[in-house]
UniProtKB/TrEMBL annotation:
Protein name: Glutathione-dependent formaldehyde dehydrogenase
Keyword Aminoacyl-tRNA synthetase belongs to the record: no
GO molecular function: oxidoreductase activity; zinc ion binding
Necessary cofactors: Zn(2+)
PANTHER family xref list: DEHYDROGENASE, ZINC-CONTAINING, PUTATIVE (AFU_ORTHOLOGUE AFUA_2G02810)-RELATED, ZINC-TYPE ALCOHOL DEHYDROGENASE-LIKE
Gene source species: Leucobacter chromiisoli
Keyword Metal-binding in annotation: yes
Family indicated by similarity: Belongs to the zinc-containing alcohol dehydrogenase family.
Domain Alcohol dehydrogenase-like N-terminal: 25-141
Domain of life from the UniProt record: Bacteria
InterPro entries: ADH-like_C, ADH-like_N, ADH_Zn_CS, GroES-like_sf, NAD(P)-bd_dom_sf
Length: 392
């Protein structure tokens, strides 16, 4: 089959690799019909290179049709499924409490990580990912989300990651009717977080330096702001001088405006992999401009919800501000299956209230994935969300 493989920092290529095969009785093989590039994939492309191996198949936002089933799978050939990015058993102590990202069956204990993830480095199990023609899906009686056949892929695809990630971010922010919610970063997760916040009745303030992203968020009711030096003061002025009740950081470890940490990221990427891995495990720092701005912006007694991915073990935190302002922090990988019951009716609603068909700016064949990664990272050509078609 053809699959997108990691070859080095800022270097991915489509290669011919062996087809996946059933390995356990509850496995299935899925023919991938759509697979998206996630902002988290850019961390593999740029920052987490010490944990990658040449030839790794990447990608963790796929959907498609089941073409082969193990003897104990509850799925059938022909079922249309979305595959969440997490690999969880569904029956351990953590899964039974809705914490599927902490699955005790698939935890990657070598690195002290939670549940294994598709296509996401040694840190999360080096499991072959979904930017490929076919994907082996373990624990198929729990993991995949069976969906209908009438609606296009775009309605369902984002259940794999970014839509439940945004939903969890808003739930962790405890934002609802009458609340003021700010969203830092209007990439795909930030776009959905802003839409969900408005859908749930919050007044949404959305911040991003890219005009096209601000324009898209404004279509769904957000008040948008450029990333300027005084943007926090502008939003405080609009919220009785207090700041919003909650702020979602949808940016993560590669935020603009963090020059020292950016240099550290680049330096780690130049080290031999074993040295780079050790440094990131013990002394790694993140680019924290968005997180620090979120902490500064939120009102006293408010909540900061982290949806952007962070990976530094030595990232400095403004503990005086956190303590003095009595701020609550909520964060973590998304427990996808916990939120599907809430989200599935919304993505199947004929009105498409969250705009699942109004996010993708580029749908390209898998063969063009290397160019798509470069475009997505550089935010060129108005790129907000890329979906790849392995069948083109």
């Amino acid at each position: 089959m053809r699959a997108l493989t990691w070859q080095g920092k800022r270097n991915v290529s489509v290669e011919t690799v062996p087809d996946p095969i059933l390995q356990e009785a509850d496995d299935v093989i899925v023919e991938v019909t759509s697979t998206a590039i996630c902002g988290s994939d850019l961390h593999l492309y740029e920052v987490l290179t010490p944990f990658m191996d040449r030839g790794d198949i990447i990608g963790h936002e796929p959907m498609g049709r089941v073409v082969e089933v193990g003897a104990e799978s509850s799925l059938a050939v022909g079922d249309r499924v979305v595959v969440p990015f997490t690999i969880s058993c569904g029956s351990c102590w953590m899964c039974s409490r809705g914490l599927t990202t902490q699955c005790e069956t698939t935890q990657v204990r070598e690195y002290g990580s939670g549940a294994a993830l598709f296509g996401y480095s040694r840190l999360y199990g080096s499991v072959p990912g979904g930017q490929a023609e076919y994907l082996r899906v373990p624990y198929s009686s729990f993991n995949p989300i069976r969906v209908g056949t009438d609606l296009p892929d775009h309605r369902y695809l984002f259940l794999s990651d970014i839509l439940p990630t945004a939903w969890q971010g808003v739930q962790y922010a405890n934002a609802g009717p009458g609340d003021a919610l700010a969203v830092y970063g209007l990439g795909p997760v930030g776009q959905f977080a802003a839409r969900i916040g408005a859908f749930l009745g919050a007044e949404v303030y959305a911040i991003d330096p890219v005009p096209e992203r601000r324009e898209l968020a404004a279509r769904y009711g957000a008040r948008t702001f450029d990333l300027t030096d005084d943007v926090n003061d502008e939003i405080r002025d609009a919220t009785q001088g207090r700041g919003p009740d909650a702020v979602i950081d949808a940016v993560g470890m590669e935020a603009h405006g963090s020059p020292v940490a950016k240099v550290a990221h680049q330096a780690v990427g130049l080290l031999p992999d074993p040295v780079g891995r050790k440094l990131m495990e013990t002394s790694g720092v993140d680019r924290l401009a968005a997180l620090h701005a979120s902490i500064d912006l939120v009102r006293r007694g408010g909540t900061v919800s982290l949806s952007g991915v962070y990976g530094g073990q030595a990232s400095p935190m403004p503990m005086l501000s956190l303590f003095d302002k009595q701020i609550q922090l909520r964060m973590g990988q998304c427990n996808v299956k916990t939120w599907i019951e809430d989200l599935l009716p919304l993505v199947e609603d004929p009105e498409d209230p969250l705009g699942t068909e109004d996010l993708v700016t580029h749908r390209l064949p898998l063969s063009e994935a290397p160019q798509a990664y470069e475009m997505f990272q550089q935010k060129s050509d108005g790129c907000i969300k890329v979906v790849l078609d392995p069948r083109s």
